[in-house]
Amino acid sequence: MTENKIAVVNSSSFGQIFKEHWEELEKIGQVDRFMVDPDISGKDLAEKLNGYNIIIASVTPNFTEEFFDNMDGLQLISRHGIGYNSVDIKAAKEHGVKVTIVPPLVERNAVAEAALTNLMALVRQAPAAAEREREGHYSDRAHFMGHEFSGKQFGVIGCGNIGGRVAELFHFFGGDVLITDPHPATSDEWWAKNTWAKRVPLNELLAKCDYISLNASLDDDDYHMIDAEALKKTKKGVYFVNHARGALIDEQAMMDAVKSGQVAGYAADAMEVEPVPGDHPFLHDDHCLITPHTSAYTYECLHGMGEKCVSDVKNLVSGKPLVRELTSQL
Ligand SMILES: NC(=O)c1ccc[n+]([C@@H]2O[C@H](COP(=O)([O-])OP(=O)(O)OC[C@H]3O[C@@H](n4cnc5c(N)ncnc54)[C@H](O)[C@@H]3O)[C@@H](O)[C@H]2O)c1
Ligand SMILES: O=C(O)[C@H](O)[C@H](O)COP(=O)(O)O
């Protein structure tokens, strides 16, 4: 029997596979870590990974059709995450490669809580205020006036696993929660329990909300769904938080809206290009708060993600059904 070869692939620092999970993987086969350029894809990526039958994949790099055309013997891509926009699922299926993602509940709380954390920190200008305090400028404190959440209008774009939790957290503040989603992934049970959640068209949500959270999946037709036209329809002084995917937003249009004051602030954990170039304007404006795609990085969540990758590998090699296998749903 040929030995299993497992490639753990990332393109930035990689601390999220716990030691016990790594050891479990080593019982199943040879395990190697690959730190690759985020832009590498296609044939070049396949050349690096050829000979591996299992890949544990981070949010970058992208696994394109050209990658699958040039990759021999690959059986499984186990996404260390939920978002699958980095993998061409159709091409994977055509080449007989299975693709799995993390079960919803593993990441739901971590990502929803991170979105609220960053939105509130942005609105109260916590990072800039702490920085000024560290520098000894206590007298600047009058500069750091924010807004309250209680009783405001909240919007959630994309009401699935994570958006549903964001909506629940918003509801605790006591205002209205408006939701836009053409096909909400939240269950009938969720809607029956949360009767306060009101579904409205996108334009109504944009026009009415003080705080808007983006939690949609990134499909082809969602690229730049929040563009200059959409931003013109918002309430002046709205705050946005995007812990979903950077490409849901036209970043240039968002920056223009922040500069003009139409948007009071933008918090994001996911950017169209990652790692974010150091000269990106969002990184140098106190009305923006950008974190390095760390929403899932709680102990509980990372542990669950690692466990899921190990169980995918075990299921594959023992011929058991895989959990949340996207290729079987096409
Ligand atoms: N920042 C992170 O670390 C991190 C971690 C996990 C997930 N994510 C991202 O969070 C997002 C949500 O994940 P999830 O598990 O809740 O997914 P999900 O599939 O459960 O929910 C996504 C929802 O978005 C909706 N949607 C798609 N296009 C839409 C549109 N144009 N307008 C309104 N709604 C739309 C879908 O109908 C679905 O209900 C994804 O983009 C995922 O990649 C980010
Ligand atoms: O889609 C997700 O779940 C996250 O964006 C992401 O995958 C977090 O984990 P990482 O890719 O950094 O391993």
UniProtKB/TrEMBL annotation:
Q: Where does the signal sequence lie? A: none
Alphabetized, the UniProt keywords read:
NAD, Oxidoreductase
Q: Which residues form a coiled coil?
A: none
Q: Say which enzyme class the record assigns.
A: oxidoreductase
Extract the SUPFAM superfamilies matched here.
Formate/glycerate dehydrogenase catalytic domain-like, NAD(P)-binding Rossmann-fold domains
Q: Name one GO molecular function term.
A: NAD binding
Q: Do you know which PROSITE patterns this protein is assigned to?
A: D_2_HYDROXYACID_DH_3 (PS00671)
Offer one Pfam family short name for this entry: 2-Hacid_dh_C
Q: What CDD domains does the record tag this protein with? A: 2-Hacid_dh_12 (cd12177)
Q: Where is the D-isomer specific 2-hydroxyacid dehydrogenase NAD-binding domain?
A: 117-295
InterPro entries membership: D-iso_2-hydroxyacid_DH_PdxB, D-isomer_2_OHA_DH_cat_dom, D-isomer_DH_CS, D-isomer_DH_NAD-bd, NAD(P)-bd_dom_sf
- The record's EC number reads 1.1.1.290
Q: Which domain of life is it from?
A: Bacteria
According to the entry, every stretch annotated as the D-isomer specific 2-hydroxyacid dehydrogenase catalytic domain falls at: 19-323
The UniProt record lists the keyword Oxidoreductase: yes
User: Which protein family is named in the record?
Assistant: Belongs to the D-isomer specific 2-hydroxyacid dehydrogenase family.
Tell me the protein's name. 4-phosphoerythronate dehydrogenase
Gene behind this chain?
pdxB
